[in-house]
Specification:
Length: about 210
Amino acid sequence: MKLCIALTKGRLEEQCLDYLEQRAFDVTPLIEKGRKLCVETDHFKVFFAKGVDVATYVENGIADLGIVGEDILTEYQPDVFNLIGLPFGICRMALAGIPTEEAPEGKRTIATKYPNIARSFFQEKGESVDLVKLEGSVELAPLLGLADDIVDIVETGTTLRENGLVVKEEFMRFSARCIANRSSLKVKRSLMLPFIEAIDKESEPRHVSSNL
Ligand SMILES: Nc1ncnc2c1ncn2[C@@H]1O[C@H](COP(=O)(O)OP(=O)(O)OP(=O)(O)O)[C@@H](O)[C@H]1O
Ligand SMILES: O=P(O)(O)OC[C@H]1O[C@H](OP(=O)(O)OP(=O)(O)O)[C@H](O)[C@@H]1O
């Protein structure tokens, strides 16, 4: 029986492979995969997908384990076991926009890739807003007049700064997380534990190399 692991491609991919390498996994087959999406070794089947799809594959038991941004877990609330925090993919969720002294007049329009997070943020404030869902480059929305402000991820702040926008409020902090399928956690426990222990940031990095 092999352990099936879903990894997030894109921004988290390189940091994730670096981390696994530091934790003594031989990630060469993953680095050399080219356009191949799924790589099988003696003990593991590893595939790459977009963050939200990683959560879906783990929720449905196709993958036993996944590595995904906490922003995805907060936004989509998949029914998975949220196992451990990892020390990469560190970012914040913020309300941002064009700097202004004046209080907004009337109902604000907020552009975001994270409508659920944005909705509960404004609900908690007791402010009613109109949400516009975008799929990327959210910073464009206030510049082009589609929205007054945005709710989006900030890491270095470069994207905001270079587009003349500022953080108005930071309200969540995220990192990458290791998640598990609930039933795999019981059925494949003995297979999973060495992997989980190896990647747990609290544990000592191992010296024995295993092929991932
Ligand atoms: N600027 C950032 N700094 C650090 N981590 C980030 C940043 N942006 C996103 N992330 C984290 O990386 C994960 C993957 O982000 P990425 O931008 O690759 O995916 P995406 O938003 O689905 O984009 P795409 O549509 O281009 O695939 C996010 O879920 C988040 O956890
Ligand atoms: O604070 P920074 O370090 O500049 O990072 C923040 C940017 O990174 C993310 O976007 P991404 O690059 O993933 O592009 P996208 O918005 O098109 O998905 C996020 O949505 C911000 O735009």
